[in-house]
TrEMBL record:
Residue ranges of domain Reverse transcriptase in the record: 1-101
Cited InterPro entries: DNA/RNA_pol_sf (IPR043502), RT_dom (IPR000477)
Pfam family, one: RVT_1
Gene for this chain: LOC115229758
Protein name per UniProt: Uncharacterized protein LOC115229758
Length: 253
């Protein structure tokens, strides 16, 4: 469940003020609900939908005491449940903190946003002034690549999907530097000539950083507990063909 709150204070004061309001709200739930707070957005995660509904019904009254109003247009209840096929998994297109919950869906959206970002750079910069190769690469690394790799360390993707991302990256590099038929350049020369690397390496490196960050967290933290369950030898076996995202053993209803 996500709740969007309208802030009227400075960023730092608002975060402190929101934390004080959430302390009153915590009296309506226990460890069965996990909070995820980012700026003015609050997500509540639980495997018990009744607890979330109870919290949703009591939130307006509690937050009104702190003169906070829930933005109903941004408040939604999302049920994450793995089905036999992806068709019925509507939660995959739910947007949380700028990312879609479904990894494949999020990757497709990231590619679209990166393409749009590169198009704006070409119109406003590359076609307006003569820009050298080094500055083109800096613009790409500053305004396009972060859009494409946003939250990529959490993606659960296969080797095939990593290859498609590398292919997309190379296509963007060729477009950025004006390489088109009849001009040709192989992939290795493209990376070397324009001081670039395959994005799959950065994604895998980000995974290891996230893995280490989770291991350094409190063992009672939800992320640490989920990782222990995921790699446990005594866990339930997966049903059917394994997927690269949420395993059946960790489905949330």
């Amino acid at each position: 469940m996500s709740a969007g709150l309208r802030e009227t204070l400075s960023p730092l004061l608002f975060v402190i003020y929101l934390e004080a309001a959430l302390r009153d709200l915590r009296t309506f739930y226990n460890d069965s609900i996990t909070e995820i707070v980012y700026a003015d957005d609050v997500d509540f995660a639980s495997d018990n939908i009744d607890d979330l509904i109870h919290l949703l019904n009591n939130s307006p009254r509690v937050l009104n005491k702190w003169f906070l109003i829930i933005n109903t247009s941004k408040t939604e209840l999302t049920e994450i449940k793995q089905m036999d096929t992806r068709i019925g998994e509507t939660w995959r297109t739910a947007n949380k903190l700028g990312s879609l919950l479904g990894d494949s869906e999020d990757i497709s959206r990231r590619k679209m946003l990166a393409t749009a970002a590169l198009s704006r750079i070409r119109k406003k910069w590359l076609q307006a002034w003569p820009i050298n190769r080094a500055l083109r690469s800096r613009l790409y690394n500053a305004f396009v690549k972060p859009v494409l790799l946003y939250n990529s360390s959490t993606w659960g993707i296969s080797d095939t999907e990593l290859k498609t991302i590398d292919s997309f990256h190379r296509k963007e590099l060729r477009l950025l530097h004006g390489i088109h038929w009849p001009s040709k350049i192989n992939n290795l020369s493209l990376y070397k000539h324009y001081d670039a690397t395959p994005l799959s390496q950065e994604i895998i490196g980000g995974r290891w950083k996230l893995f280490g960050h989770i291991l350094r967290m409190d063992p009672r933290a939800p992320a640490n507990r989920e990782m222990d369950d995921y790699f446990s030898e005594h866990g339930d076996k997966y049903r059917g063909r394994p997927r690269s995202t949420l395993p059946a053993v960790k489905k949330i209803t």
